[in-house]
Design a protein that fits this description.
It is a single chain. The strands form 2 sheets. The protein has a 7-stranded mixed barrel with strand order 1-2-3-4-5-7-6. The chain has a 3-stranded antiparallel beta sheet with strand order 8-9-10. With 478 residues, it is of the alpha+beta class. The protein is built from 16 helices and 10 strands. Helix 8 packs across helix 12. The protein has a domain of 130 residues. The longest helix has 26 residues. The protein is globular and about 60 Å long.
Length: 478
């Protein structure tokens, strides 16, 4: 028998401790503790970005898959990730402009999607339902998308996890890809908890249409007016879900009481990075797409997606491209789109008409410049990552460029980041124009970027030269 003169107190203390621990387990998220769903198993496995992972795709007929890739239809495959086998995984090509151009140029290096629950109900990779393998199309540095997501995460904007993967097909080398967590169920649980809200990927059916819903315009209360949003819901939605989102768009259209319908702080952090990286294949561009829309309890926010044409290289997707690096790298942060586009982007335009939000937007730019760029953090991220992937880029049998061109692209990206940060700093301090209207008033409008050739980051000439290399790699796959 236990004998102790303080046994009653010890027992009482033990009971109290047990109650406290139980409370933390039940209410830890309310108290600010990170829930288990925020750190799923896949985050520390495939998305450990301190090393290059391996993904072997075992496909019955790879030649047939490549021939039918533009149709974006799933086929079953076995995916072996870091030596671990996953059976009956859905595999298809992905992309929009990149997929079209890959086919048009007779190439075979498509970006890919792996969907673990496509054929097997509940199938997953340590909790992950879907991932992408990004081909770094028109990105000779292999770094544009990785760096943009790194910046988003640094600014605490919910961003997909990503890491590099050496991809083989039936054991034969296929190339270095960027593995990216697809924003679906697992992404929502990780970022917003098990009781997360609704997630959409607004996209146009035709560029010739108005696409007001993709631009997040309120056009009425009928859900049928928003097909480009609701037809692209990632989860099942009901009438209440649609009503909440439409109500948020109505509030946004008024420009008043925006914090009742918009996660203002998160949206401002998103736009800080979005504008810095000069990505016009986005909400702020002509197409207005390439973003995810999240809604919870009637409050919406915008989430990042697709950065292969960032850092001033969207000219590659324009019929009348702007290629002048002085113009692109000094692009104004206060009017990051031309007037006819800006007025049609209420999630940016209506927020920036509020003086408090506008000042907060500038404060976030100051933080990004001070802590990420002027501190040298960006250079460390680029150089350390490039050193890690260098042997794989050098051996990449389907690369869009030579290894020498890759090195040139990395140096170019470093210079673009350095000059862009100097330009933005000058805009914040009033030394350089921060609006398109101010540009017209000043003959010299920013940093001298005339020595930068943005084509080094990836251009059509690279696509012309890559076909033979990719054909040879495809011929080796059995």
């Amino acid at each position: 028998m236990i004998r102790h003169r303080h046994i009653d107190r010890i027992c009482a203390a033990a009971i109290l401790l047990a109650l406290i621990l139980t409370g933390l387990l039940c209410f830890g998220e309310v108290l600010g503790l990170r829930p288990a769903s925020a750190a799923p198993g896949y985050a520390s496995r495939l998305f450990d970005d301190d090393r290059v992972h391996t993904v072997d795709l075992r496909v019955e007929d790879w030649a047939a898959f490549l021939e039918n890739a533009p149709a974006e239809e799933y086929i079953p495959c076995t995916a072996v990730i870091d030596g671990e086998e996953f059976y009956q995984v859905g595999l298809r090509a992905k992309g929009n402009n990149s997929l079209r151009l890959t086919e048009e140029y007779g190439l075979s290096r498509y970006s890919l999607k792996l969907e673990f629950d496509h054929y097997v109900d509940g199938g997953n990779y340590h909790g992950l339902d879907k991932l992408s393998l990004d081909a770094s199309f028109q990105d000779n540095s292999y770094l544009k998308t990785y760096l943009a997501y790194h910046m988003m995460a640094y600014m605490e904007a919910p961003a997909p996890l990503c890491s590099y993967a050496w991809v083989t097909v039936n054991g034969a080398p296929w190339g270095l890809f960027l593995a990216i967590e697809e924003p679906e169920e697992a992404f929502a649980r990780r970022n917003f908890g098990p009781d997360h809200g609704a997630l959409y990927k607004p996209d146009y059916h035709s560029l010739n249409a108005e696409n007001a819903d993709v631009a997040l315009w309120y056009t009425g209360d009928d859900p049928a007016l928003y097909p480009n949003i609701f037809d692209n819901a990632k989860f099942s939605t009901d009438g209440a879900d649609r009503e909440r989102l439409i109500q948020a768009l109505r509030v946004l259209s008024t420009g008043e009481d925006l914090e009742t319908a918009i996660n203002v702080d998160e949206v401002l952090r998103y736009f800080t990075v979005q504008v810095f990286v000069m990505n016009w294949d986005s909400y702020l561009g002509h197409t207005g797409h390439n973003y995810f829309l999240y809604e919870e309890d009637g409050v919406i926010s915008i989430l990042p997606w697709d950065y292969n044409l960032a850092f001033g290289t969207y000219a590659l997707g324009m019929t009348d491209p702007i290629r002048d690096p002085d113009v692109l790298i000094n692009w104004p942060i206060n009017t990051p789109a031309r007037g006819e586009t800006m007025l049609k982007r209420p999630l940016y335009h209506n927020l920036m008409k509020n003086n408090d939000y506008f000042a907060r937007y500038h404060a976030y730019f100051d933080h990004l410049l001070t802590e990420y760029f002027e501190s040298g953090r960006y250079e460390a991220v680029i150089r350390q990552t490039q050193a890690m992937i260098a042997p794989y880029v050098q051996a990449d049998p389907t690369a869009f460029c030579s290894y020498e061109d890759h090195l040139l692209a990395v140096d170019t990206l470093l210079e673009v980041c350095r000059l862009r940060s100097e330009s933005v700093r000058g805009q914040l301090e009033g030394d350089y124009p921060a609006t398109l209207a101010q540009w017209a008033e000043r003959p010299v409008f920013g940093v001298d970027a005339s020595h930068v050739d943005l084509r080094a980051l990836g251009d059509f000439d690279d696509l012309e030269a890559a076909r033979e290399r990719q054909d040879e790699a495809a011929a080796v796959v059995e």
